[in-house]
Amino acid sequence: MKNRISLIAAVLLIGQISFATPKITQVEPLCWWTDMKTPLTLMFHGEDLQDAQVSVQQLMKGKVMRGACQGLVPTAQHNAESPNYLFVDMQVNQPGTYRITLRKGKKKVTHDYVINERKAGSRERKSFDASDVVYLIMSDRFVDGDESNNSTPNTKEKADKNNVNGRWGGDIQGIINSFDHIAKLGCTAIWPTPMLGDDEAAWSYHGYACSDYYHIDPRYGSNELYKQMVQQAHEKGLKILMDMVPNHCGSAHWWIADLPYRNWINQFPQFTNTNNCFTANYDINASEYDRQLSNRGWFDSPMPDMNLENPDLLKYFQQWAIWWIEYADLDGLRVDTYPYVEKIPGSLWLKAIREEYPNINIVGECWTRPAPAVAYWQSGAKNFDGFDSHLPTVMDFPVEEAIRQALENDGHGWGNGLTRVYDAMTMDYMYADVNKLFTFLGNHDMGRITDVVKDKDPRRVKLAYVLLATMRGIPQVLYGDEYAMTSKSEDPNNHSYLRAPLPQGNAVTADMQDMFDFQSALFQWRKNEPVLHWGKTMHFLSRDNTYAFFRYNDKEAVFVFANAAEEPRMVPVKNYAEILGQYNPVGINPLTGETIDLSQEQKVDALSTLVVKLQNKPVQKKKIRR
Prior knowledge:
Elements: H1 2-15, E1 23-28, E2 32-33, E3 40-47, E4 53-60, E5 63-64, E6 72-79, E7 85-92, E8 96-104, E9 107-116, E10 134-137, H2 172-177, H3 179-185, E11 189-192, E12 196-197, E13 212-216, H4 223-235, E14 239-244, H5 288-296, H6 311-328, E15 332-335, H7 343-356, E16 361-364, H8 371-375, E17 393-395, H9 397-407, H10 419-425, E18 437-440, H11 449-452, H12 458-470, E19 474-478, H13 495-498, H14 510-527, H15 530-534, E20 536-540, E21 546-552, E22 556-563, E23 569-571, H16 577-580, E24 586-588, E25 595-597, E26 602-604, E27 608-615
């Protein structure tokens, strides 16, 4: 009897427990779609959400529909370590608007969630490839198209064009306004540096310290304007790549104040940098200490290192990338600091994206050398450990370095000059797919090509661009290099100074325009030359600071002879008999329109190139004797 009374008292006590009213401040992803291969898991964040009961009702014209909801069905849920999170798996069956209720005792909170109908053909979308030329934009510095959003009430750092390390006002509208310029240059795809929220108090202009993965920073515009930018780019025949950073977030991200799990980020007793040694991922002699520090150390003090080994975080990042591709109709991704991400979870992140979009191309920054170290990270590589990154395209840092070193001096000395380029190209056998190498002469993190070449000589810059346009791979141009922009600093590698705005109007000098016209003719021609997109390469070694190669297929070839010497050189056409004999030796220089006869020796001026388009010899029919 006594035990029964105690039980009744306990039941009555439980019934009197007062739950705090739950609160929702974030629900991510922001929306979803039908017919997605990727299952939906919603992350709720707010206050006192742990163990909440989840129910869903459909809304029709703002009214709750009675009866069981079949369009969006909760199938599982689990808590985080913080009581302010709840992860809920959802089965998506039908488009519509749904009211999700989280209930704690008699207290509840609701959130209306939209499931969209997926656009036809979205899964099969095409992407960027070797037929494209990618134009890289430093988003805050490129063009200020809307001065009204340079500073906003809800962001810490305000625009100050007198502060070289501060925000200057470049934005989405500035990119939209520049579409005609980019298309005229001959570029067909645009890679803006990250435009998501970055609310650091200083140095936020670079965008690589994300504070909100699902919203465009208001100093660039809005989600809707970003979406419009992609649509208008497509109307101009341009593609858009989004720059994503799964390795780290910013210290101003809202979840830093209330982490879902302690291991959501990699933590140390005191601030610990990465050792920048991602070779430890495949070094058979590497210590576990170095491996861990490479992947778990922080990239910089305001950039907490994300731990993708946490399964909820990995799922979050998979959905995040897929959400932006679907929402904005993106054409591809660029991944920052890819090898710094935990190796296996990083590959699973990319695998999920590519399973949702089988044709998507993704280029990863794997800033290392030599070629074997880069090739390890390309999907399909025959790695000794069986690792597949699922990263289709890697940045060709070895060839970038070779071109820059070849042109920064007179090229004298064994192994110098354009011999460096030949040597770099001999490593192509290491790569799973050379047509998916991202080639470039410079980017926003290194000195501009005009600052690097000897005497800032525009002839050397033009020679470099001929190599870039005619080599295998996917060329990338850094904004402003079409005008041979230089840094305003004595140190050409000073990031803030080299990231100056694009010259406009009267600021474009005659010399700048000449460089633009040269590159425009080059890249416009490249657009319509499949042999440059998909052709094979045969190259020839010389020790006189020249470099010769053919891009070829069964029907046609493009011959390129680059002379980086400071005196004229004769083209040794006899050396090329093994391939030249397959083609009619009389061709056209597509950059000048001249007819060139490669059966005769040709003189190439100092610091210049010769380009010749050749056609296959016609098959001669034998005469039949009667």
